[in-house]
Amino acid sequence: MSATGRRTAAQQAGGAAEDAAARFLERHGLEIVARNYRTRLGEIDLVARDGATLVFVEVRMRSSARFGGAAASIDHRKRARIEAAARRFLARLGREPPCRFDVVTVEAGEAEWLRGAFETA
């Protein structure tokens, strides 16, 4: 949020992309169980269930693929922050179900779902 407590245009666009991604995943049978899960170590945009599998979803939006596109913007530092937040989420559960890390990209209004986009180290 900005200093005035209002969401910036970029934050509003990111929120809209997350809403669209959640609806997209729900249409494909996933159940959203958490949104914007935050820890001091990182954030997970969406946490969903795909059957027995817990899915940690990063949503990336870009207006074009000009600078490598949305998927290319997830570097090793971003993956490490997502993984750290996922470990915290799992610790709260007290058990570890099968897990997967997915990415939903939104580029020029088109969504693409990358299942198993990356794995933990």
Task: Explain the overall architecture.
The chain has helices at residues 9-27, 69-72, 76-93; strands at 31-38, 43-50, 53-62, 99-107, 110-118. The radius of gyration is 14 Å and the shape is globular. The model has no long low-confidence stretch (mean pLDDT 85). It has one domain (9-118): Trna Endonuclease, Chain: A, domain 1, CATH 3.40.1350.10. A 5-stranded mixed β-sheet has the order 1-2-3-4-5, with helices on both faces. By secondary structure, it is an alpha+beta fold. The longest helix is centred in the first third of the chain and has 19 residues, at 9-27.
CATH class type: Alpha Beta
Main beta sheet: strand number and arrangement?
A: 5 strands, mixed
Instruction: Measure the end-to-end span.
Output: 32 Å
CATH architecture field: 3-Layer(aba) Sandwich
- Annotation field: number of helices: 3
User: Based on DSSP secondary structure assignment, what is the total number of beta strands?
Assistant: 5
What is the rounded Rg?
14 Å
Spatial strand order of the main sheet: 1-2-3-4-5
Can you tell me the number of structural domains?
1
Order of helices and strands: HEEEHHEE
Classify the fold: give the CATH topology.
Trna Endonuclease, Chain: A, domain 1
Helix content: 25-40%
**Net shape:** globular
Q: Taking all residues together, what is the mean pLDDT?
A: 85
Tell me the fraction of residues in β-strands, as a range. 35-45%
Helix-strand category: alpha+beta
Give the low-confidence spans: none
